[in-house]
Amino acid sequence: MEQPSPVEPAELDLAQLAYLLGLRANETVLRALHRAGFVGLRPSHGFLFQHLLGGPCTMADLAARLDVSQQAVSKAVRELRSLGYVKSQPAHGTRAQRILLTERGEAAVSKARALRAKADAQLAAQVGSGRLLRAKQVLATALRVQGGTQAVRLRRVRMPRG
Fold first, then answer.
1. Domain boundaries defined on the chain
2. Out of 85, 99, 107, 121, which could bridge 80 as a Cys pair, Cβ 3.0 to 4.6 Å?
3. Over the chain (162 residues), what is each successive 10-residue block's mean pLDDT?
4. What is the CATH number that goes with domain 14-153?
């Protein structure tokens, strides 16, 4: 079987580079979280966590925000509950349960944020804080041009399909 020809990252378009960087950064953060004792977390859990940062949500709300079935949300919530990252509480006046982060879930979010800040600081040390800021501005502009700014602002980023 013939090996594919090598690819130089600088030859890729901005969207591909940003996507690949995001994948790699997420893998690095996830491995560090696991080493820090936050075991069992997967990349898809982060999408669910983002919707719980503002407070409790019902399964139906989570499913709508994530654009997945309630069964998919229920499965993820069961996993996260068994790992100690989320818990349920009754929604007042209904039979629905509201899902919220536990202390452990909030600690995982804090640790992930600290790891990402450390990665930014390491990159700033290599390229300079001004260049890092400009790179972030370019990516934020590209996100706006692609119509993705509002989803980020409202924490409505959905899991990738496929």
1. 14-153
2. 85
3. 90 94 95 97 92 92 91 95 95 84 98 97 97 96 93 79 62
4. 1.10.10.10
